[in-house]
Inverse folding.
């Protein structure tokens, strides 16, 4: 399609006048039927790379996405923008709702689907009857065991591609090392995939990492910083409780600003409310977990603080990258104490099942097999063995990989079981060590004496653009004097209920009330 | 406090005849027939499904807290049964309980409320010339309702906003400042998203359970008032029109009902539907509760009914097991439940 025409379509469907770097190239590639691995930094508008082609191509675009809440948000936003033919298929929907979508596939242009549903044999069959013109793998690093969020279901996607007779494929990610890029291409069995890699460094974000002695000192620093800069701010925590607690402290310290917290444990309606308030500049400061941020299109976040240590650089780059999408100067500050490493260590442990649990699961599977019983429900297994969802998903996938589980059936011989058991334990150790190594890299980075920018991106790319402001806390930084664009939200909210009601309902003073 | 008062009320009314978890099911609005029947039996139907998002953890934490505060204590017979302490009685007597209409109007009130929220969001946005916004109500049925009725309103946004203001202003008068505050700050308008439950709790220095329940009580009372005085609330009664969900019966019970009406017996129905006899029994109890004038005579003879009623009087208890022990052996649990379903209607 001619250049101007693409821009016109972009304006028509999404209301943007121009493309951001990388978008147009990738869109042209997929429209021509080229398979692409696209790596674009956080906040660069990855989703337009498939949303626009979905509107322009005949047939269906399938988007595999790992996070259900993110999928639902995207569909909602597209519908609010009146983009036609968008829907989703996920495990929050009941069987009837899913059937409804599957029966009407031909009516849709863009379908978001979770990997575990797509790879289900009963679902795949439905897709054979429609023309799939584009297959998108969002957060493609999930396919690699060496990516920062491995999702076993993603490994089955190459089989799905076979079943669908290899539609044009677009794999997208924000933060992947060259090693993981190769792994993605290899796992998808598409050696000729075109790589479109864009640098992930963000010249407008000032990087700072500072060691403190205690949590109290962290709070002090944060308060001082927020006193200096009245800007839209995000503070990241590893723990929901600490996020809630800190939000309360900050709300007290800054009575003129609007502070709240956000985490995955909140109800859907309230999560949307908080996201929308933040986007509408009704909120100034959010204390959140990593659940916040993906899919949030707020471009004037000026300050991102990490209260806890992220588990690896990839997550840090993604979270810090939510600052300054509009290109204006922003600050990303990481605070840490020497003790902080224990939290991510604990979290790593929680992602993997314990050896003793694996042993008990094997015993149980053997017993079930001898009684001729099928594999129990996921929820049952999770409760019975006190596994969290991630742990059981991991273990189940391993059992499938070793042919001990096929569909709902258990197949095992003593010989096979023994071998699988040892190999799974070895794999758990390997994963654990690898995650610890990633954490170690993170720790080295925060402690490094040399330029933070250089060492942060070194693993991913060979160079970076010169920063538009101060570089980082190692290269020298005058804390109180960053020219961050101030944003004073004047949130109108009346203490008088009648005023508030009038205000919301847009009723003027001319109304008689008494 | 409201949350505690509701749990205390339930414990008091259950009179050590049902376990604490039946309160959890009641507040959450479990559809099972046991929960519905108990709700009527113990005159707790107004609290039915007033807190659908309640989690087991939160509920149990509250029970532990009440026990620690010495407002309740474990029953004599079983650990999972509770009763009020004297302190609990005193506290409850002093508390002015909020009004709910859970079983009768709860669902309808929530449909009414969701429609109202989405309508206000739509009207205020349209009034400002904005047609694209993220709907605060997810429910497709509610969104569909707006789509259907909007043509009637289109072009008259200003008048509608004025009308809604006037009616909400009048309707809110009798409520406390706290309730009014919670209600208006939860509303979403043009570029102003309403406060989340957590934010409301923090703004008004309330416990989040109480915010949820206060809001629920306001919804119920508004709904009832609007429907009682339709002429005073023309706009709001338009919003509440046809908000009562279709029959409260489960699909399966409806099928059983049709077969009963065709003259099939319990065993025949069970074999036709390949269901257990017990399941059919559950359906019949459900029918006895929900269908006015549903005859229970085909399943309980007048003599048997008399035996059961007298046993209940003698024992002054609704405990199934005690009643069963007090009546002749040929009377079964199903028959007792049927008679009980007729008790408090």
């Amino acid at each position: 399609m001619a250049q101007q025409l693409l821009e016109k379509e972009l304006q028509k469907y999404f209301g943007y006048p121009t493309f951001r770097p990388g978008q147009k190239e990738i869109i042209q590639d997929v429209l021509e039927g080229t398979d692409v691995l696209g790596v674009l930094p956080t906040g660069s508008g990855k989703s337009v790379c498939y949303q626009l082609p979905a509107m322009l191509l005949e047939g269906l675009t399938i988007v595999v996405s790992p996070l259900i809440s993110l999928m639902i948000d995207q569909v909602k936003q597209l519908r609010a923008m009146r983009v036609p033919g968008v829907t989703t298929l996920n495990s929050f929907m009941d069987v009837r709702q899913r059937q409804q979508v599957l029966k009407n596939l031909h009516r849709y242009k863009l379908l978001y689907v979770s990997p575990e549903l797509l790879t289900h044999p009963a679902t795949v069959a439905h897709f054979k009857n429609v023309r799939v013109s584009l297959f998108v793998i969002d957060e493609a690093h999930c396919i690699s065991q060496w990516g920062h969020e491995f999702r076993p279901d993603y490994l089955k996607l190459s089989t799905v591609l076979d079943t669908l007779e290899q539609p044009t494929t677009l794999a997208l990610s924000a933060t992947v090392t060259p090693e993981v890029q190769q792994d993605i291409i290899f796992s998808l069995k598409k050696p000729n995939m075109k790589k479109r890699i864009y640098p992930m460094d963000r010249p407008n974000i000032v990087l700072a990492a500072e060691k403190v002695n205690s949590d109290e000192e962290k709070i002090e620093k944060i308060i001082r910083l927020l006193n200096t800069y009245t800007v839209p701010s995000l503070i990241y925590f590893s723990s929901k409780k600490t996020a809630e607690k800190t939000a309360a402290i900050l709300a007290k310290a800054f009575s003129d600003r609007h502070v709240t917290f956000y985490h995955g444990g909140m109800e859907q309606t309230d999560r949307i409310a908080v996201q929308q308030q933040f986007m509408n500049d009704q909120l100034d400061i959010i204390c959140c977990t990593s659940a916040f941020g993906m899919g949030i299109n707020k471009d004037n976040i000026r300050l991102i603080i990490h209260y806890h240590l992220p588990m690896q650089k990839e997550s840090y780059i993604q979270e810090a990258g939510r600052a300054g999408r509009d290109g204006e100067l922003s600050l990303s500050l990481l605070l840490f104490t020497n003790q902080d490493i224990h939290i991510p260590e604990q979290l790593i442990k929680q992602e993997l099942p314990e050896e003793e649990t694996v042993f008990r699961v094997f015993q149980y599977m053997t017993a079930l097999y001898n009684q001729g019983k099928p594999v129990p429900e996921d929820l049952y297994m999770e409760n019975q063995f006190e596994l969290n969802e991630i742990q059981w998903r991991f273990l189940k996938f391993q059992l499938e990989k070793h042919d001990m589980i096929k569909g709902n059936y258990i197949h095992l011989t003593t010989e096979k079981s023994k071998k699988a058991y040892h190999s799974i334990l070895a794999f758990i150790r390997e994963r654990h060590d690898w995650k610890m190594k990633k954490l170690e890299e993170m720790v080295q980075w925060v402690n490094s004496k040399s330029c933070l920018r250089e060492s942060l991106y070194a693993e991913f790319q060979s160079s970076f653009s010169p920063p538009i402001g101060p570089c980082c806390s190692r290269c020298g930084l005058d804390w109180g004097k960053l020219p961050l664009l101030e944003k004073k939200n004047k949130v109108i909210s009346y203490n008088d209920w009648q005023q508030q009601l009038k205000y919301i309902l847009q009723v003027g003073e001319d109304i008689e009330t008494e | 406090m409201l949350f505690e008062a509701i749990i205390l009320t339930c414990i008091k009314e259950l009179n050590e005849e049902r376990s604490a978890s039946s309160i959890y099911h009641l507040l959450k609005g479990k559809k099972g027939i046991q929960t519905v029947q108990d709700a009527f039996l113990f005159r707790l139907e107004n609290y039915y499904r007033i807190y659908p998002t309640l989690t087991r953890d939160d509920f149990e934490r509250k029970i532990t807290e009440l026990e620690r505060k010495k407002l309740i204590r474990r029953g004599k017979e079983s650990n999972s049964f509770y009763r009020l302490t004297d302190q609990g009685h005193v506290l409850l007597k002093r508390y002015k309980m909020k009004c709910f209409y859970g079983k009768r109007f709860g669902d309808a009130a929530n449909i009414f409320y969701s429609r109202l929220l989405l309508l206000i969001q739509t009207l205020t946005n349209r009034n400002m010339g904005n047609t694209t916004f993220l709907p605060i109500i997810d429910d497709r049925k509610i969104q569909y309702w707006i789509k259907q009725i909007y043509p009637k309103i289109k072009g008259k946004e200003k008048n509608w906003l004025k009308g809604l203001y006037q009616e909400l202003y009048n309707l809110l008068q009798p409520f406390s400042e706290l309730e009014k505050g919670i209600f208006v700050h939860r509303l979403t308008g043009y570029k102003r998203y309403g406060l989340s439950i957590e934010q409301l709790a923090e703004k008004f220095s309330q416990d989040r359970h109480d915010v949820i329940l206060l809001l629920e009580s306001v919804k119920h009372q508004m709904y009832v008032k609007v429907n009682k005085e339709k002429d005073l609330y023309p706009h709001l009664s338009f919003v509440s029109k046809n908000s009562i969900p279709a029959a409260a019966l489960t699909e399966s019970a409806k099928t059983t009902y049709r077969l009963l009406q065709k003259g099939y017996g319990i065993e025949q129905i069970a074999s036709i539907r390949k269901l257990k006899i017990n399941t059919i029994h559950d359906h019949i109890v459900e029918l006895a509760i929900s269908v006015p004038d549903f005859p229970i005579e085909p399943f309980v003879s007048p003599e048997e009914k008399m035996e059961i009623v007298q046993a209940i009087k003698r024992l002054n208890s609704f405990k199934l097991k005690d009643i069963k022990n007090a009546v002749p052996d040929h009377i079964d649990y199903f028959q007792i439940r049927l008679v009980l379903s007729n008790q408090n209607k």
